[in-house]
Automatic annotation (TrEMBL):
Keywords: Membrane, Signal, Transmembrane. Residues 9-157 form the Outer membrane protein beta-barrel domain. Residues 1-23 form the signal peptide. This is OmpA domain-containing protein transmembrane region-containing protein. SUPFAM superfamilies: OMPA-like. The keyword DNA-binding does not apply. Gene3D superfamilies: 2.40.160.20. It comes from Simiduia agarivorans (strain DSM 21679 / JCM 13881 / BCRC 17597 / SA1). Pfam families: OMP_b-brl.
Amino acid sequence: MKKFLATTALAIAAGSFTTASIAEEGFYAGANLGIMHVDLGDASNPFNVGIQLGYHFSDNWAIEGQYTSSLSDGSFENPSYYGPDNVDFSVETLAGYGVFRSSGNVYFKAKAGIINETIDAEGGYSASDTGASVGLGLGFRQSDAGNFELEATIIEEDVIYFSAGFNVNF
């Protein structure tokens, strides 16, 4: 019985990966939210929200622009004797990606592109950098009109954006 259930579950899962593609061609827009994980000791991480606009130019390939900004700041302990004990900071990003989505109602997503990030910290500190960015995700096609995606995007070597989002196809 266990073998039958396992085989049935595997067959259903395999079928969901091969039934349909996201969209043949056309625009999509979406929103996302998540944790901007910053590898900075005991820092609390900012909570970001974002928007994206993309264009599917084939069944599996798209280009996508994405903007995110901190809805709530993160903070870290200031090791200096000068200034506040805790320093609040935010992360803002603007990126352009080439995106691959596999076919199916449940699908794999991979993206690579260029990103500009700005980190603003309490006390007037601000830093901006432009570089490469990559991400991986898992998507769930809700209908021809939209899909839900879970992603991890490397912003830079010590910043990763873990997000959940929804896209609407036009």
